[in-house]
Amino acid sequence: MGKYILKRLLKSVVSLFAVMSIIIIMIFELIPRNKIFANDPAYKKIKGDNKTVYTYQKYEQLGYLDFQRKPEYCNFIYQDDTEKANLCLKNGSAEQKEALAQMEAKGYTAEKFKNGDIYIYHNYNWWELLSHYYAKMFILDHKNAVQDPNNPDMERGYKWDKNPDNGSPALICSGCRYKYQLYFNGKFPFIHSNVLHLDFGDSYPTNQGVPVLEVVSSGQGKMQNTEQMFPSGTRQNSAVIQTTCKYKESMDKRDTAKFPDHYADCLNQYRDPSMINTSYLIGLLSLVLAYAFGLPMAIDMAQHKGKFRDRLGIAYINVLIAVPSLAFIFFMRSIGTLFGLPDKFPMLGFGDARSYIMPVIILGLLNTPSLMMWVRRYMIDQTSADYVKFAKAKGLSNKEIFNRHILRNAIIPIVNAIPSSVILCISGAFITESAFAVPGMGKMLPDAITQTNNNMIIALSFIFTALSILAVLLGDVLMTWVDPRIQLTAKEGD
Question: Is the pTM of this model over 0.85?
């Protein structure tokens, strides 16, 4: 079992990065790169050489190319010769021509600013795109990660302490980028680690300058203050989340009053949940609704095959499958308004349960057809199995056979189908959250595509793909837990 899970995890990782590689190549190679500036107000205001510099700096920041001006390529070529590096800065000099010739031989293209200065750039091919992106994607934190010349005697090491939020055990580090390396709280995914970080770059053009994962994982709305005890011993109301604090070299008086250990670069607590938590809550509730409604319906249909209940259920399945999801969403939304429910999530906001009712109902109902059809079909197929014939021969009634045998065996595929339902909830959330303007990941993805927010698209694709792959693996494991007779690996000799 352990070997099987390990193999599946390795295959899952390979599959994940295969999908991500395709997405990255499609974004960078097939979408015109100038579209990234369509929603950037600063880009429209800049003119002349400044606009050229701004353009190429953004291209470099997003991973399209390598951009260098005179100081960069002169120092690169003449790094061991300061005199030639200085002469290279003079336009038209022999040293500059030599440097440009060498850089052009490396695949760089030279262009001239209006002021006469020459800049160079190298467009990455698909292999370079992937290598550069993955090289910066993984950041491993450790006790020697911080190198502050103003703090050379900093103690370095790990120790167990308490989470300042709830008093639970927490692994803290001195010398790491993040003080809290491992901690626990009541927020998804409940166990948090800062040892390995995924860096998908900064969001652009929306939420410009903010790391992508911070955009989707940080709270929303107004900041929420709580009474806290800081490492300096100071107690005050603050929105700071101490478990997110990073090392900060330049400290002001407000920082030193709270954080004498330099771990003062912290995220803030907000009143409303993050995009991840919002999508997680709506997806979970809709999944519960889908099973609470669809499962009894499918069982009842199987028990009354060919009768009115069965035909009515089949009609329901056919209607939901045939009707476009968007049409169904808007139809249900209009019904919700008749009962005083909001047609947009922000109308009442996070604090009102009515905001969640229609998105959860719609997303749950959209997932019932496949569940009902699949479970009904499986249970009907079981009625012709040999064990059913044997039970009838023993004199058991149809009701006893159904409840003791067919239903028990049907639990196995039902458990295995849970991951598929999770995936359907995720895919359905794209449309549902957009229709109701729910501030979750489902809405963020189409918004990011519209705004050509490349890093956000890649990050969300990574999250959704990883969740889908993990859900499938979890379904297989749960199936063996429900029925130990099921073996995921072949026995020796088979």
Answer: no
